[in-house]
Amino acid sequence: MSIPDRGPELWGVNNAFIVTAFLAYFLRCFVRVKMVKAFGFDDCLMGIALLFYLFYTISSNVGVHYGTGRHHHDLSTENVARARHCWWFCYIFYSWAMIFAKLSIGFLLLRISIKRVHTWILYAAMLLSVVAGGTFFFVIVFQCQPVYYFWDKSNKGTCVPNDLIVGLAYTYSIFSIISDFTFAIIPGFLVWHLQLKRRAKVALIPLIAMGCIASAAVIARMPFIRHFNSPDFLWATTDIAIWSTIEQALAITAGSLATLRPLFFLAMNRLGLVTQPSSQRPSYGAKSGPLAMGAASKKQTSENLRPDHFKLSAVVETRVSHDAAQRPTDFPKSPNWFNNGPPAKESKKLSKKSMNDNESERSLKMKSSRGSSDEDTAGIMVSKSFYITDEERSLASRDSRPYQ
C-alpha cells in the first residue's frame, strides 16, 4: 500500500508559479526600462515582493522534502520538526511578499490618480494591507514562546490557542479581499477621466484591474483555514499552502501584466492585427523623441499662438519679399546727383529723371535676379500658421475685408 503524499502536488505548483511570476516581472522590467523608460517605485516594490516569494518557494520545497503534504505518523519526529520549521519561514516570507505586492499595485494606480478622493482611497487600501499583513506576521511568528517551540515540541513552551490563529487567518483574508476589490474598482474611475477614446478606456480598465485577481485565491483558500487546528498539521494544511502559493503568484503576475500595454500593442503591430504602429500610440511614462525639423517648427509655432482645441487651422504661405531681401546697398548714384547743381527747377527735373532711371535700373536687376533664383531653386517659402475659430470665421464673412 502506497503512502499518501501530496508533497509532489505542492512542489509542482510552487515551481510552475514561480517561473510564471519571474517571466511576468521580467517583461515588466523590459517595458519600463527599454520601451517607456519609466522604471518607478512601484516596480521596485514588486521586485522586493518577488524576492520574498522566491524565498517562500524555496522554504516550501524544502518542507516538501522533509514531509510537508504527508501524515505525521508516516514521518520521523525529526522530519516533522524540520517540515514545521519550513512552514514557520513560509509564514514570514508570505506576509512580506503580499505586503509589498499590494503596495506595488497601489503605487501603480497612484500614477494615474488625479482626484484627491481617489488618492486617499488608494492610500487607505494600502494602509489596510500593511496593517493586516503586519498583524498577521507578528502574531504568527511569535505565536509560541519560545519561538522555536512551534516546530520543536521536545522542549517546554506555550503557544496561543489555535482558535486565535484560525480567527486571525479569517480576519486577514477578509481585509485582503477588501483591499483587492478596492484596487479592482478604483481603476474604472481613474481611467474614465483620462483623455482616451471610450474603446481604449474599456480595454484598459480590466488590464489595470488585474492586480486584484489574487483575491480569487484568497476566497478559494478560506474553506481550508479551519485545518490550522488539525493535529495532523503537515497533511491537513496542504491546500492552504497551495492556495497561498497561487495567491502570491497571481498578485505578482497580474500586477506586472497591468504594465505591459505598450508591449501588447507592439506585438499586435508585428502580427499585423493593428494598422497604427505602437510607437505612435501614447503609452504611459514614455519619453517622446525628437520630432522632424519641419514638424517641430510647426508644432512650436502653433503652440505659441492661440490654442486650437478643435483643430480648426488655416495655413497661409507667402513669398519672401525680394524687394527687401535683394535691395542693393551700394546702388550707383546718378551722375547728375551732386551738391552744387543748377537752380531749383532744373534740379527738380534732373532729380526726377535720375529717380526714374534708378527705378528702371533697379527693376531690371530685380527681374534678372528673381529669374535666376527661380531657375536655381523653388524660392524661399515662409509658412505662417494661424488659427481661426468659428466665431472669427463668422465675423470675417460679414466684413468685406479679409481676416487679419
From TrEMBL:
Keywords: Membrane, Transmembrane, Transmembrane helix. The chain crosses the membrane at residues 12-31, 43-66, 86-110, 122-149, 169-190, 202-220. Residues 27-264 form the Rhodopsin domain. InterPro entries: Rhodopsin_dom_fungi, SAT4-like. GO terms for cellular component: membrane. Residues 276-307, 319-384 are annotated as: Disordered. Residues 345-364 have a biased composition (Basic and acidic residues). It is found in: Membrane. It is a multi-pass membrane protein. PANTHER family: INTEGRAL MEMBRANE PROTEIN, PTH11-LIKE INTEGRAL MEMBRANE PROTEIN (AFU_ORTHOLOGUE AFUA_5G11245). Belongs to the SAT4 family. This is Rhodopsin domain-containing protein. It comes from Ophiobolus disseminans.
